[in-house]
Amino acid sequence: MSLVSTDWVEKNNSSLKIIDCSWHMPNVNRDPYKECLDSHIENSLFFDLDKNSDLNTDLPHMLVKSYEWEKIVSKMGITNKDRIVIYDNSDVLSACRCWYNFIYFGHDRNLVHVLDGGLKKWNLEKKKTTKKILEIKPSKYISSEIKNLVINKSQININIKEKKFKVIDARSRDRFEGKVEEPRKGLRSGSIPNSSCIPFRELINNDNTFKNQKEIIKIFKNTLGEEMTPNVVFSCGSGVTASVLALAYSLINNKYMPTIYDGSWAEYGKN
Question: pTM, whole model, 2 decimals?
Fold first, then answer.
């Protein structure tokens, strides 16, 4: 139940912790926080994906330390027992990265959901939004890292030879094949040796909902073959759209725990 519908959220709103995790690519002139202030689902909290990442590295969206995550989530008034729904108003489905973060830091994966279709579908259905700011009562959140859900560059390099897990890149095929420049400065074009590419948009419908299970299975089998191994690591530009693939794979493989190369091409592609 990683995905929940707009109708379900509308019905259960008062019993949920709802998070707006909108984020936009660096070359897009949009302010997700301002957009959230102007219009959000009732009882929403804003999660700043840039600020709530490791600020002591030049790599974007790297995981924070465990104690930092506890501070971030406690300030949001979220407890370990809360049922969380995350949405976004983003073309890159950034809610999925927040979903991954909560699972990495030990929140019960059965209590963390992404709103299928996000704010785009919510607005298309003319469901209620508000400008009202939610009053927050701080909590005492306790994190419990699942450290094997993150892969580092050294492990990626070793795996190029040993091939113990599959690496799938969520960027566009043109970026993966090095046909276009990267949107971030200081990065070469191309991809990790022996990796494969499934552009995340191939898994998403026009209304930003995920494709059905049958379609998702077909897409992954075209890359992984019939085996559908649980030993899959997802990468992208900065760890955001990799999480879209991770969520999609979890929809068709109950044993899969989302595993991300956190540095992604922002690290591997440095000049």
Answer: 0.96
Spatial separation of the C-alpha atoms in residues 149 and 228, rounded to whole Å: 18
21 is catalytic: no
Instruction: Assign 91 to helix, strand or coil.
Output: coil
Q: Which residues contact 218 (CB under 8 A, 6 or more apart)?
A: none
Which residue matches tokens 């700011």? 133
Measured between alpha carbons, how far is 244 from 95 in angstroms, rounded to an integer?
9
**What's 230's DSSP letter?**
S
Break the chain into its structural domains and give their ranges.
3-124, 147-268
Let me know: does 95 contact 115? Beta carbons within 8 Å. Answer: yes
Average pLDDT over residues 194-223: 96
Class of domain 147-268: alpha beta
Establish whether domains 3-124 and 147-268 are of one fold. yes
* 66-81: burial string, b at 16+ Cβ within 10 Å, e else: eeebbebbbebbbebe
Q: Is the dihedral of CA 95, 182, 231, 73 positive or negative?
A: negative
Q: Which of 231, 223, 221 is nearest to 256 (CA)?
A: 231
For the segment 30-76, what is each residue's pLDDT rounded down to a tens digit? Answer: 999 999 999 999 999 999 999 999 999 999 999 999 999 999 999 99
| CATH 3.30.470.20, applies to 3-124 | no
Alpha helices in 107-204 (DSSP H): 118-124, 153-162, 173-176
pLDDT at 26: 78
Catalytic residue selected from 21, 98, 197, 236: 236
